[in-house]
Every structure is written in structure tokens, then in C-alpha cells.
């Protein structure tokens, strides 16, 4: 009975071996050319500053809110893919369930839009 899982276990083992092997081999086969530009921090092509300019040294909360909204509306698509695959098999119950799910996400989107969370100021 467990023989059917053997290809899956081998695939995971091969993936883990590749990941560990790549990380272990990188310092051995990679170039060793260090200079000042490589050792400096990189901030989107501008000169790095000791503190952020906006907010007097604090990162604005809008960055975190935007990231949370992206995660919320990105993850909801992940839950819609399985329905798209088996839409014919689940019938009316699946249709009602996905409709309620989309309505919930649409309500959250409308709330965020009305509240001004999608405006960048």
C-alpha cells in the first residue's frame, strides 16, 4: 500500500538533495571577486541612508497595510484554483460555496476600497 508513495518520497528527497547541494556547492564554484560595491547594501539604486527619510526614521504603516492586502487578495485566488479544476464534479453545492466565498472576498474588497486602504498617499 505504501509503494504508491515511493515516487513522491523520491521526488522530495531529490528536491532536498538538490537544494542542499546547490547551497553547499555555491561557495566552492562561485567567483571570489570582492569589491566595495558588492559589500555595500543596496536600496533600489539609490545611495543607502542610515534612516528612512519619510516619518523621521520610521517606516510608514502604509507599507505593511499594502503587504497585508496583497496577501489577502492573492491567497484568495489560490483557494479558487481547486474549484476551477473540479467545477463539474461538485455541482450546485460547489457553485453555491464558491459564490459565497467570492461574495465574502468582494465584501472585504469593497470595505477596503471605501475605507481608503487602496489609496497611496
Helix content: 55-70%
- What's the count of strands? 0
Average of per-residue pLDDT values: 83
β-strand amount: under 5%
What distance lies between the first and last C-alpha atoms, to the nearest angstrom?
A: 59 Å
Low-confidence runs of at least 5 consecutive residues: none
Listing every helix as H and every strand as E from the N terminus to the C terminus, the arrangement reads HHHH
Protein structure class: mainly alpha
Give the biggest beta sheet. Answer: none
Q: Which outline best applies?
A: flat
- DSSP helical segment count: 4
Which radius of gyration do the C-alpha atoms yield?
A: 24 Å
Summary, kept brief:
The chain has 121 residues and is mainly alpha-helical.
Question: How does this model look, in words?
Answer:
The chain is flat and about 65 Å long. The mean pLDDT is 83. Helix 3 (61-85) packs antiparallel against helix 4. The protein has helices at 6-29, 36-39, 61-85, 87-115. The protein has 121 residues and is mainly α. The longest helix is centred in the last third of the chain and has 29 residues, at 87-115.
Give structural attributes.
single chain; 121 residues; mainly alpha; 4 helices
